[in-house]
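Section 5: illustrative case.
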């Protein structure tokens, strides 16, 4: 009965920053993948960033590499996505997700649990 709740979205001008949070409750695996996905109108949901909780290894799509940073706070059971130098094309609904046994960290079908999403608008 894992629950994921995102927060931190909002409206920001190009070049600005946002820090998204994902609070996880319920029983989660100690070693797993957690990720951030986004979906813009008319577009498919795409993986943005992921982290393997076992060793902290991270994965990013090319369009956000160097601008976004995924991290986790184990004590707070919280996942973060620090987004800097935001661009208009980053506008989307952002979802936090937890994989059961992900073989491909940025592939949405690998993820079993999803939050409700938080809207990020860069304009």
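Designed sequence:
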């Amino acid at each position: 009965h894992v629950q994921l709740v995102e927060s931190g979205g909002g409206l920001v001008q190009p070049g600005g920053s946002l820090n998204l949070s994902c609070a996880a409750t319920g029983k989660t695996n100690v070693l797993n993948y957690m990720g951030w996905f986004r979906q813009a109108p008319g577009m498919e949901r795409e993986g943005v960033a992921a982290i393997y909780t076992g060793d902290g290894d991270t994965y990013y799509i090319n369009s956000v590499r160097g601008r976004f940073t995924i991290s986790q706070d184990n004590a707070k059971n919280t996942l973060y996505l620090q987004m800097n130098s935001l661009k208009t094309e980053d506008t989307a609904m952002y979802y936090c997700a937890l994989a059961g046994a992900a073989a491909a960290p940025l592939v949405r079908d690998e993820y079993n649990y999803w939050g409700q999403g938080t809207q990020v608008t860069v304009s």
